Amino acid sequence: MQNQSAGSVTSTDEIDPMPVRVLKRTLLVVLGPFYFLGIAFVPLICSRRKGFRGWYWRLVKRACSRLLWLLSIRTQMSDANKRDLAANTGSIIVINHRSHLDGFVLMDTVPDAKWFTFAAKKELCDAKLLSTGFNGAGLIPIDRASGSVAMDTLTQAVREMPDRRSVVLFPEGTRTKSESLGAFKAGAVVVARDTGRTILPIVIHDSDRLLPPGTFVPKSGTIRIDALPPFVCDPNATVDEDVDRLRNMMMAVFDEG
Hints:
By secondary structure, the protein is an alpha/beta fold. Helix content is about 50%, strand content about 15%. The protein has helices at about 20-45, 50-70, 80-85, 100-110, 120-125, 130-135, 145-160, 185-195, 205-210, 240-255, and strands at about 75, 90-95, 115-120, 140, 165-170, 200-205, 220-225. A 7-stranded mixed beta sheet has the order 1-7-6-2-5-3-4, sandwiched between helices. The relative contact order is 0.17. One of its GO terms (biological process) is phosphatidic acid biosynthetic process.
């Protein structure tokens, strides 16, 4: 809905006139809770329906797109990147983390042909209201109480994934407040090495400008996304060397703006 090819629009250009933005956000406040709660309850009724995971995943993606539309936020990715993503297989997606908008932006931007999922805290996947929906969307439950158990769980889940499906990992571990990228954790590289998958780096620009740390109401504007060429781990290098090479590759694109 909001996804557009790259152009001359800057992140701070407001998408809609003020009256339209007010109307959209009023609709979000008044009707949004019913719409999004309805989507959360769909798996309780339809989880046994044939092909449920596929169509429910698309339903969630559409909901993310509608949320961004109601917030007057546009996502922007080149047509070439979209084609590459649609055809991508055998990868782990790695993305920098700037704000709470990042997951919604990724859901809105990545073509439906590219199936991906997220890792989530086990506690969320155990919650009765959320578990059916999370399981339906294919989220990977991770027990963060033990780092080694979490890595084993993630690695096994990636091994069992269809080749066309990818897990999304945030190598910085949390939202970064610095001007550039934060330090990368080694998890994505370790899993890629253990499973033989490539890493697909994706760089998000300007999401923190629309939703700065400590704020709860996003500004209107454009968030740009760049998909980089696949990153192949070097079996002759150390894990730390691969991590540094991956971070430098993403940082060069991020710092260009």
